[in-house]
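FAQ

Q: What does a record look like?
A: Structure on top, sequence underneath. For example:
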């Protein structure tokens, strides 16, 4: 049983993500739109949540959760019909919006990174690609359901190309460690791109090829069609923005590049 950050309090791969992002954004004409808006937001919006006072109240849900862990596995075995969880994500994004979905380790930090991207209108954390219907966090952390912790992104393709999202995905994590990100070990921490359209699939495969050229280690990221998305429990949503474990809120302002403390 492993929960986010159980083995370490450090974050993985938090340095210069936005810088990596900017330089890769310059490489194609479709992406140049992104740069001005990012700079604009960086200048105007300081990361205003970083200095706010700790809000102790936010400790409670996670402490309750941690004390309940260990009693979670039973439900998962009851429901083994995998036709629903293995079916497609048939939710519909708002008009003008598209979905994208990524698994890159503990979903808290990954979500905050995507929240900060101009053109991303909404993010949700959840579970997908597993074998049971309606899993809980405890089920997923038990390691028996094969779900991946993912972030589902709602974005406006006119304001933010899918390639920009892919760039951030690669910059945010180590795609060469199988079922593992830093101290977080388990199949729920696997690296994955879950696509909604043939165009997304093509872009994902091409970007993986590009990334592979830049490292000697084998990239183990899975690229699969998006399956049913189970929204995680409410307290996991925008967890770090709301204060994480210790009540220190982290800014989700567009363009903010404060280092992300992945576990709060
Ligand atoms: C877990 O799901 C992945 C797809 O995300 C699949 O490739 C793998 O075979 C599954 N593992 C098990 C044990 O079912």
């Amino acid at each position: 049983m492993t929960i986010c950050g159980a083995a370490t309090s450090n974050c993985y791969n938090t340095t210069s993500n936005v810088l990596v992002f900017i330089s890769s954004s310059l490489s194609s004409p479709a992406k140049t739109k992104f740069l001005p808006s990012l700079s604009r937001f960086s200048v105007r919006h300081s990361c205003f949540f970083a200095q706010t006072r700790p809000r102790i109240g936010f400790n409670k849900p996670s402490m309750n959760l941690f004390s309940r862990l260990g009693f979670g596995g039973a439900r998962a075995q009851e429901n083994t019909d995998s036709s629903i969880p293995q079916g497609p994500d048939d939710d519909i994004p708002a008009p003008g919006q598209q979905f994208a979905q990524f698994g890159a380790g503990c979903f808290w930090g990954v979500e905050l990174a995507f929240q900060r991207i101009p053109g991303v209108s909404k993010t949700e954390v959840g579970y997908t690609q597993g074998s049971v219907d309606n899993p809980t966090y405890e089920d997923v952390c038990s390691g028996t359901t094969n779900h991946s912790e993912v972030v589902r992104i709602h974005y406006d393709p006119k304001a933010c190309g899918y390639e920009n999202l892919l760039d951030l995905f690669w910059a945010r994590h180590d795609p060469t460690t199988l079922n593992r990100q830093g101290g977080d070990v388990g199949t729920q921490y696997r690296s994955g791109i879950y696509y909604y359209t043939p165009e997304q699939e093509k872009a994902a495969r091409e970007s993986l090829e590009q990334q592979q050229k830049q490292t000697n280690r084998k990239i183990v990221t899975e690229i699969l069609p998006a399956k049913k998305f189970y929204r995680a429990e409410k307290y996991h949503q925008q967890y770090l923005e709301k204060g994480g474990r210790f009540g220190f809120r982290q800014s989700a302002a567009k363009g903010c590049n404060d280092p992300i403390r992945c576990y709060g």
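Q: Is there anything notable about this one?
A: The radius of gyration is 18 Å.
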